[in-house]
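explain this:

___
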Amino acid sequence: MNIGIGLPNVVPGTEGRQLVGWAQRAEELGFDSLAVIDRVVYDSYEPLLALAMAAAVTERIQLVTNVLIAPLRNTGMLAKQAASLDRASGGRLTLGLGLGGRDDDFVACGLPTHGRGRRLDAQLGELNRIWQDTDIGPAPARPGGPRVLLGGDARYAGPRTARQGDGWTMMVGTPADFAAGIEVVRDCWAAAGRPGTPATMAVFYAALGADAPHVVAQAVGGYYDWLGRDIAGHIIGTAATSEAQVHERLAGFAVAGADEVMVLPCAADPAQLERLAAVALPRAAWSDTHRPEGTPT
């Protein structure tokens, strides 16, 4: 199981030099990937721009949008931006795409919120066509375009993944949630006659240190307050605020069958990156101690 780390692109007040330094250090520490998330009406960096900054100062680490709100974007321009980033980074881009749920993001972009699912379905077909035909250059580094993961509730993302994606990302939730979702996605994949198995990605928020609960409540609560206190509180509850909880989340997602897990930071402080790396990256710290015998990695 690969382990990635989020860039703090949605931590309010983050400076550009912090994003660049975070990306460089994450690669040095040995994380497998860097992830960004997407909002418009928020103090955040645009995801593809943030990943372009990271690509310029790294060589190995994979670059992931988890997720990009595709219906907010012009499809032709999205195809060009993704292909450009994939080519410039040597084929390191994974494009996680989702519907988006905030009305104010759509209003800010002059777009309606209704019909988002149909729009995303149409976009997936058009992206594939553009990357195959390369009528809008440059040609992606990966033949056929970047790997595409579909995010969201497996009841809806599962069929979409089976039709037009390479895999599924749950975004946020517990290992139990992920285990239930992956069954739905795999059933859809098999029913569609797709060979092999879909790629799978899980995500959880984390902060370490004496003030970790406060850091999580401020960052995660602020980001999801639009969902209401109960749902935002539930998401806060899925975050890890101790070394033991980080281990438990990683072990739980490994047992559930995740190919990759993204640890999303709640602060841009470089000390958080160092702390999370020290706990999450030594595989023996969680996989051998917490993973049941015979569980695949």
Q: What stands out?
A: Residues 116-133 form the longest helix (18 residues). The longest strand covers residues 62-69. The beta strands are 2-6, 33-36, 62-69, 93-98, 147-151, 167-169, 199-206, 260-265. DSSP finds twelve helices and eight strands in the chain.
